[in-house]
């Protein structure tokens, strides 16, 4: 499927929610929450974009990286390259209803699978969203990850059991959703977690446990203490807290503090292959991609998602060749400069 056609289709169906701007900097969609924008002034969304763009790559053309290695392993599964589909819900109130929730979940989980990687499902105030996500994971023979909102531990554990029954690879909580507007609209309480509460969640399952929304060393150390398997350095796309630091600003310090104890993923304004390489150079094991997969699903369904993922993969290869990177598992921070 042609990328331009896919984006044109998505733009037509997402009128008023996402303009598919040539520069996805959070300006047009500022304050559209629910919707596709950043919260408040959209400072955090914009900062994700600007700070990532301020990191530059060093062009290098005398080396042996002619055929870079992209494969990596996470949660015991080998994937074709270190990009995963982010957990997103709310096609009706966030995306304009261009596809149904059931269609979107299937597109992301099956589209990522077809492209050689893993998709995640999300959770929201409408219980059918999580259920449709689990249905998609079952359809993919368990090849997917379930991320749950920071509800009460009792409610989270109920959903962990549902994910286990669906055969999910891993489970987790997006702690960065603690103050999410959409959850308030549904009248469902969410909030932060203590270390003891995290320990209870980790011990409630044999699956790898993920804590998404870690933005400081203190929280990363708390996750390590609680026995968390994986953290995602993320500010929820700038959609929960205005005037927040960007993921790429805090990632290196977090990697230095707990990189030997935890698997570290990151997200925030990943729109092309060079963005992936920057996060890898900052120390992430892999990155989550969200918004582009929305465009893929709405503009071209499962084929659109696969097109987006494969495009990112091809762009990453090109970026690695032109910076002398031989292996995604050993990208050096010497290839970047601020």
Tell me the span between the first and last alpha carbons: 36 Å
What is the 3D shape? globular
Number of helices: 12
Mean pLDDT: 96
Structural class: alpha/beta
Architecture (CATH level 2) name: Alpha-Beta Barrel
Largest sheet: 8 strands, parallel
How many separate domains?
1
CATH homologous superfamily, by name? Aldolase class I
- Report Rg: 18 Å
- What's the CATH class label? Alpha Beta
Strand content: 5-15%
Low-confidence runs: none
The CATH topology assignment is TIM Barrel
Key structural traits:
338 residues, alpha/beta, TIM Barrel, 8-stranded parallel beta sheet
Task: Characterise the protein shown here.
This protein has 338 residues and is α/β, with parallel strands linked by helices. Helices cover 42% and strands 12% of the residues. It has a single domain, classed as Aldolase class I (TIM Barrel), CATH 3.20.20. An 8-stranded parallel beta sheet has the order 4-11-10-9-8-7-6-5. The protein has a two-stranded antiparallel ribbon with strand order 1-12. It has a two-stranded antiparallel ribbon with strand order 2-3. α6 (153-166) links the parallel β6 and β7 (170-174). The longest helix has 31 residues, at 291-321. The relative contact order is 0.19.
What's this entry about, in short?
This protein is an alpha/beta fold. Helix content is 42%, strand content 12%. The chain has a single domain (72-337), classed as TIM Barrel, CATH 3.20.20.
SSE blueprint and pairings:
Layout: H1 3-13, H2 43-53, E1 56-57, E2 72-74, E3 77-79, E4 83-85, H3 91-94, H4 101-114, E5 119-121, H5 127-139, E6 144-148, H6 153-166, E7 170-174, H7 181-185, H8 195-203, E8 209-212, H9 217-226, E9 230-233, H10 247-258, E10 263-266, H11 273-281, E11 286-289, H12 291-321, E12 336-337
Parallel strand pairs: 4-11, 5-6, 6-7, 7-8, 8-9, 9-10, 10-11
Antiparallel strand pairs: 1-12, 2-3
Helix pairs in contact: 1-12, 4-5, 4-12, 8-9, 9-10, 11-12
């Amino acid at each position: 499927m042609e990328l331009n056609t896919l984006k044109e289709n998505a733009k037509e169906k997402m009128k008023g929610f996402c303009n598919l701007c040539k520069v996805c900097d959070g300006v047009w969609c500022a304050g559209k929450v629910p919707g596709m924008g950043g919260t408040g002034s959209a400072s955090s969304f914009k900062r994700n974009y600007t700070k990532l763009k301020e990191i530059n790559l060093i062009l290098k053309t005398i080396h042996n990286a002619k055929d870079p290695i992209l494969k990596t392993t996470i949660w015991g599964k080998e994937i074709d390259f270190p990009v995963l589909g982010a957990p997103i819900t709310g096609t009706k109130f966030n995306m304009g209803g261009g596809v149904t929730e059931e269609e979107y979940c299937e597109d992301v989980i099956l589209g990522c699978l077809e492209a050689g990687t893993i998709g995640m499902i999300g959770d929201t105030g409408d219980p059918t969203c999580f259920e449709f996500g689990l249905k998609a994971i079952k359809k993919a023979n368990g090849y997917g990850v379930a991320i749950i909102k920071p509800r009460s531990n009792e409610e989270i554990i109920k959903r962990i059991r549902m994910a286990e029954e669906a055969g999910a690879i891993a489970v987790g909580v997006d702690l960065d959703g603690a103050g999410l507007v959409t959850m308030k609209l549904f009248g469902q309480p969410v909030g932060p977690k203590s270390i003891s509460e995290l320990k209870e969640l980790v011990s409630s399952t044999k699956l790898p446990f993920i804590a998404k929304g870690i933005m400081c060393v203190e929280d990363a150390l708390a996750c390590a203490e609680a026995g968390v398997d994986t953290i995602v350095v993320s500010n929820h796309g700038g959609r929960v807290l205005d005037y927040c630091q960007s993921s790429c600003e805090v990632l290196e310090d977090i990697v230095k503090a707990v990189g030997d104890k935890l698997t570290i993923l990151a997200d925030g304004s990943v729109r092309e292959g060079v963005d992936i390489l920057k996060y890898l150079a900052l120390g992430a094991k892999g990155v989550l991609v969200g918004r582009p997969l929305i465009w893929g699903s709405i503009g071209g369904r499962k084929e659109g998602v696969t097109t987006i993922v494969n495009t990112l993969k091809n762009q990453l290869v090109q970026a690695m060749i032109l910076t002398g990177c031989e292996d995604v598992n050993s990208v050096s921070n010497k290839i970047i400069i601020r």
